[in-house]
UniProtKB/TrEMBL annotation:
One Gene Ontology CC term in the entry: clathrin coat of coated pit
Molecular function (Gene Ontology), one example: cadherin binding
UniProt-listed GO biological process terms: endocytosis; endosomal transport
Name of protein: EH domain-containing protein
Lineage: Eukaryota, Metazoa, Chordata, Craniata, Vertebrata
InterPro entries on file: EF-hand-dom_pair (IPR011992), EH_dom (IPR000261)
Gene3D superfamilies for this protein: EF-hand
Length: 100
């Protein structure tokens, strides 16, 4: 269980569910999570852990789990439930195209 009330996670959630439907579809989540710079293999593992029932979408809690797992991977930790409670910096996402 990831605590809600994290303002950074809230702002990320607003980007993928601006209408507050309570669901983030697979394509919206994938587009957002790809901005983490992680490989598709790692992102697939994150999705499988965040959507363990294979619903094809994430609720807010599932999205928070995905964000936390992205932070795990970016910090060099293995992507597992047991690492969710480790102390680590927040996840980072490329929100603007790089300057050329």
């Amino acid at each position: 269980q990831i605590p809600t009330g994290n303002s950074l996670y809230e702002s990320y959630y607003k980007q993928v569910d601006p209408a507050y439907t309570g669901r983030v579809g697979a394509s919206e989540a994938a587009l957002f999570l790809k901005k983490s710079g992680l490989s598709d293999i790692i992102l697939g593992k994150i999705w499988d852990l965040a959507d363990p029932e294979g619903k094809g979408f994430l609720d807010k809690q599932g999205f928070y789990v995905a964000l936390r797992l992205v932070a795990c991977a970016q910090s060099g930790h293995e992507v597992t439930f047991s690492n969710l409670n480790l102390s680590m910096p927040p996840p980072k996402f490329q929100t603007h195209p790089p300057m050329i």
